[in-house]
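Problem statement: downstream parser choked on a complex file, so we are re-checking the raw output for the PBG run. The parser issue turned out to be on our end (a line-ending mismatch), but while we're here, posting the original submission so the record is complete.
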Amino acid sequence: MSSETSPSVNAGLIHRPRRLRRTDALRRMVRETQLTANDLIYPLFVMEGENQKQEISSMPGCYRYTLDLLLKEIADAYALGIPAIALFPLVENEKKDNAGTESYNPDGLVQRTIRAIKKQTPEIVIITDVALDPFSTQGHDGIVGENGEILNDETVEVLVKQAVSQAEAGADMVAPSDMMDGRIGAIREGLDNAGFTNVSILAYSAKYASAYYGPFRDALDSAPKFGDKKTYQMDAANAREAITEADLDIAEGADIIMVKPALAYLDIIHLLRNTTNVPIAAYNVSGEYAMIKAAGQMGWIDEKKVILETLTSIKRAGADLILTYFAKEVALMLR
Ligand code: PBG
C-alpha cells in the first residue's frame, strides 16, 4: 500500500506457472495423472501346504502363501479396490522336468488355486503366467535342446497346453512371459479351439533380459541352471525392436501388451503408447521393489512417498496398468 513499496521488477510477468501450484486444491485441479487402485495388478506367489506364509528374503513384505492364506490376501486386495491378481507358483522340485509338463496338469497348484479363487472371489480378474521356468529343472522359460538351445516351436506347443489348462480352471486372462516367437497367435488359436474365445491375452511383448528379476527368481527358486535368457528376452539397448515385438503380438491377438521391467524402460512405455492403441501394462518388477524397500528400511528415503512417485511416473509414461508388489500397500494409501 505504501507509496514506498517499489513494484517488483517482474510485475509485468505474464506467465507465472506457480499460480496454479499455490494450494492443494489448485494442484489437484490441474493434476494430469491420477493413480488409482483400478490401475493395479497384484502379483502373488502361491505354494503347497496349509496355514503358512514365508517372507521372501530379498523382497521384505512379500510372501509365498499357501492357498488358504492366499485366499484371504486376495479377498483383502479386492475389498481395497484392486481389480486383478497375477499368479505365480512355487513348484516342488520332484514335479519339475525339462518340458515343464506339470504346467498343464489339471490338478496342478496353479489350476487348484484358480478354482479356489473363483469360488471365493469370483469378481477378481485372475491373470496367469504362461512360461515354463517355475516348472523347469533348467530354470528356463522354454524347453532346453541338446546343445543348450531353447527350442522355440516345441516350447510353444507346451505353452498352448498350459494356457488352455489355465482357462479350463477358470483363468480370465493368460499372460505369456516366455518371449518365444509366435506364441501369442498359437495360444489365441488354442484357446479359441477349446471354446475360450472370451479369455484374454496379456502379452509380455517388450520383456528385457534384465538383472532386475533376481528377487523373483529367489521367490520361486527358478533361476536358470546355466547361461542366461538373452537368446529369448530382449537386449536392454534396443527400443525400435520393442515396436516390432508389440506389433507382432497385437497382430497375433494380444488384448493388452506389457513392458517389463518398468523403471529403466519408461521410454519404451512411452514409445509404445505412441505407436499402438491397445492398453499397456508395465511390470514394476521384483528388483525395483527390493531397491525401494531396502532404502526405506535403511531410513535413507521416505518409502511411502517414493512408492507413489514411482508408480505415478510409470502411469505418466503411458502405462494404463501396473503390476506391482506394492499394490495392496498403495491401495491402502489411496483410500
Ligand atoms: C519368467 C518371469 C520372470 C518374472 C515374471 N515372469 C523372471 C524371468 O524372466 O526370469 C519376473 C518378475 C519380477 O522380477 O518381479 N517367466
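For whoever reads this later: The chain has one domain: 33-334.
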